[in-house]
Amino acid sequence: MTQTIDFSLHGERVLLRSWRASDLAPFAALNADADVMRHFPSRLTREESDALVMRIQTHFIKYGFGPWVLEIPGQIEFGGFVGLLHVSFDAPFTPAVEIGWRLLPQLWGKGYATEAAQLALRYAFESLHLKRVVSFTAPANLASLAVMHRLGMQPALPSEFQHPKLPPGHHLQLHKLFEIRLEEWLSRKA
């Protein structure tokens, strides 16, 4: 596994940190979990999961940011990931940076995704000086849509799109698109 510069963002209850080799096995287990992956086209094999970490590491090397490991200090060393990623496909709203998350089921519904995503948004706007961050998911992913709302994200224009990496007619192809702009984030922060 390629090493990136050690980096962390600290919240009240959460830590977003750089990836370690010890994260590969729990990440593979997360990506193989049927509940976790129900809003994705398929679960990932260990090889596919490891390849995803390599793509994440490459993103960190190229851009200086990416999806960080979510840690709950003193409780859970690997709780999933939360972070920022350049959208990797062409769409009416690209180029764009998205915020995303994938957490262990035992962390769901406890506010960890929202708290960690707020750290990532602060980094996006204060350190990276981004003007806009997007997020998207299938309409059935009500939990992620709720996190987007709690972050102050609003439906973008267009508010829906057909995900180009999924085949026409796929049951997950339709996605809801949300965004938060710098000025909206600043007004919520004030």
UniProtKB/TrEMBL annotation:
PROSITE patterns: GNAT. Residues 14-179 form the N-acetyltransferase domain. InterPro entries: Acyl_CoA_acyltransferase (IPR016181), GNAT_dom (IPR000182), N-acetyltransferase (IPR051531). It holds the Pfam family Acetyltransf_3. SUPFAM superfamilies: Acyl-CoA N-acyltransferases (Nat). Signal peptide: none annotated. This is GNAT family N-acetyltransferase. It comes from Herbaspirillum lusitanum.
